[in-house]
């Protein structure tokens, strides 16, 4: 068997800017992996994330190092040992899924879903800003049934109250991106409970979150930066009620499916989330998210330009990918 692998870096502009507690972006840098086999191509996208020590150059080098093994027929199962978890493996893993589907004529979802995927509701993200700006952006999107607001400052109460007032009927996820601390997390959680917030994501820094096991949690708490792989799950059960599965963390759909199954067994609520990426990155995640509590797959909605063809969004409904895009 002979296959050819190519990885390229691409830039896509953000619509305006995207701000979390760690900074702002006006464009995203992604890596696209293409694996060709007898004229058939499979593709996968990853988003190298500086928070996890990843760079475009490092991801390209990791993919290039795997090219010879891929050309010799390395499959997804053995890829899990051949490459470390993270963005690079995600791009290769998803490209292999896509290639397998196109070579076999059997869609990727048929390997793990009992029936054809359906459109699902995704959260829509409101970037971190002052309370008035966040409220104004929320009012523009108050018709959406699920919103996710970025927080993570020493005093987010004003933001929480302003956003809730601007969208009284929406379900709301609060994502602190590790920005709260032990001396304010209980206060913010109490405010969130009063306001009927549905979920709080990663309130404390990864590796410094044991405090969550010692306090009451009036709102479900979701691990993001604290959880990457299946083996992380058991040790976090005392402090988190939910987990956010992202393909760029797990290193692809193959590991994500294993992680999802184990999370269900342990009784976690599950969110399937994303880095800020294009429709190619979202496509396999839409399949993974078919029956989870929360989907946060709005990346393309936050871009000024997406891939073509891209995913079809109808308001907050995201439709499953067509084969021309992925899978």
Automatic annotation (TrEMBL):
Signal peptide, first to last residue: none
Stretches of the chain forming a coiled coil according to its record: none
Listed EC numbers: 5.1.1.-
Keywords for the protein's UniProt record, in alphabetical order: Isomerase, Magnesium, Metal-binding
Cofactor note: Binds 1 Mg(2+) ion per subunit.
Entry superkingdom: Bacteria
Xref: InterPro entries: DgoD-like, Dipeptide_epimerase, Enolase-like_C_sf, Enolase-like_N, Enolase_C-like, Mandelate_racemase_C, Mandelate_racemase_N_dom
Name of this chain's protein: Dipeptide epimerase
